[in-house]
Amino acid sequence: MNANDTIKAWKNKSFRAGLSASQLEQLPANPAGVQDLDVAKLEQVSGGIAPKNTVANCLITMVGCPR
Fold this sequence. Notes:
The protein is mainly α. It folds into two domains: 1-33, no CATH class; 37-67, no CATH class. Helix content is 48%, strand content 0%. The longest helix has 9 residues, at 3-11. The termini are far apart.
């Protein structure tokens, strides 16, 4: 398997699923490792939005600012 196919197999789940068993055995481990997140961890993600009543949120939205 050439370098381009190796990288494509790492990135593209459907391409990887189409590989034969011998090709999968030759595929080196992805250097980034496994990137699976479970539901509990995904629920903790805030999407970069500051929680309510913080200084950053106050300055951006002018909501919940102390008076």
